[in-house]
Amino acid sequence: MTRFSKTVLTWYSDNKRELPWRGSRDPYKIWLSEVILQQTRVAQGMPYYLKFIERFPTVSDLARATETEILKLWQGLGYYSRARNMHAAARTVEREYDGSFPTSYKALVKLKGVGDYTASAIASICSEEPTPVVDGNVYRVLARYFGVEIPTNTSAGIKYFKQLAREVMDPSSIGDYNQAIMEFGALQCKPQNPGCETCPLNESCKARQDGRVAELPVKLRQKKVKTRFFNYLVYLDSHKKTRLQKRTGKGIWRHMYEFPLLETDRLLEPDEIYSTLNNEDQGGEVTLWKEEPVVHKLSHQHLITRFWIIELEEEITHGIPLEKIDDYPVPVLVSEFLRTFKNSYF
């Protein structure tokens, strides 16, 4: 065991958080927690984990659920492809493994949405397979401690850090070690304001010695953020019914529900919205919900959004009652509007 791994394990035994999936060797619970916590903070992901475990206590229960049920429960976490991949993986486990979740890296990495990190975490924790995990927390710890300047989001960086993680890991206690180094990055070697003064590795940390803690790890700049203009058409009839549509295609929020959408290259005026309506709907009254548009920021997109209320005299054919709209999984952007709108409308 290297001094590095021994120190991290000792720190972990004294500082680890009590989490509902920690200490479990149930691969389903470990997998569920890892999927939920990808790109999600523990404080935000914890309630979702608890809801999913309560609703779907086994992978077979999850496999038998509908996609709409899963997306609704996932609503608010973002990156909805994670939920769809999770559902597909559960169905694969049910179909090909009779509902018995695999624990080998080789089998795990073949499941939809399971990459090297998740497969390594499950295999090491559940079956002590000696494979190291490398996530954002691990990249940060290794880059700072060893002073590595190779960008983490390049093929060379991914390969280098995986090998470095393998060299410093403790294979005799790999499940605990993998959890320890991730926890160390989350709590001690944080992205901002890391606890360098109290860090048990501070005397041998290369980044601290060189005054470069804030500079590491290195990450190449991502794609330019794209700005899009969304106009949601919120139809309402005298029976308090509205229209929703399901998003298709491979863009954001696939298979989620939303109001009819008009995407434009700029903000529109009421008469311009009115001119886009079909003849049947042009008898309705068009009003802007709020003058100031909602700016919804995604990883590579900023959505400049306005909600247009279109009140119709005739009943909407196959309309959805507003009191039942919560049954449908919708993006946070729409959910936040509905929360405010329904409070004032009813």
From TrEMBL:
Keyword hit for Transmembrane helix: no
Keyword 4Fe-4S: yes
Ranges in a coiled coil: none
BP terms from Gene Ontology: base-excision repair; mismatch repair
CDD domains according to UniProt: ENDO3c, NUDIX_DNA_Glycosylase_C-MutY
Record's cofactor remark: Binds 1 [4Fe-4S] cluster.
Pfam family, one: NUDIX_4
Gene3D superfamilies hit by this protein: Helix-hairpin-Helix base-excision DNA repair enzymes (C-terminal) (1.10.1670.10), Hypothetical protein, domain 2 (1.10.340.30), Nucleoside Triphosphate Pyrophosphohydrolase (3.90.79.10)
Alphabetic keyword roster: 4Fe-4S, DNA damage, DNA repair, Glycosidase, Hydrolase, Iron, Iron-sulfur, Metal-binding
Reaction catalysed by this enzyme: Hydrolyzes free adenine bases from 7,8-dihydro-8-oxoguanine:adenine mismatched double-stranded DNA, leaving an apurinic site
Gene Ontology molecular function terms on file: 4 iron, 4 sulfur cluster binding; 8-oxo-7,8-dihydroguanine DNA N-glycosylase activity; adenine/guanine mispair binding; metal ion binding; oxidized purine DNA binding; purine-specific mismatch base pair DNA N-glycosylase activity
Residues covered by the HhH-GPD domain: 36-187
Alphabetized PROSITE patterns for the sequence: ENDONUCLEASE_III_1
Cofactor(s) this protein requires: [4Fe-4S] cluster
EC number: 3.2.2.31
Homology family: Belongs to the Nth/MutY family.
Free-text function comment from the UniProt entry: Adenine glycosylase active on G-A mispairs. MutY also corrects error-prone DNA synthesis past GO lesions which are due to the oxidatively damaged form of guanine: 7,8-dihydro-8-oxoguanine (8-oxo-dGTP).
Name of protein: Adenine DNA glycosylase
Lineage of producing organism: Bacteria, Pseudomonadati, Bacteroidota, Flavobacteriia, Flavobacteriales
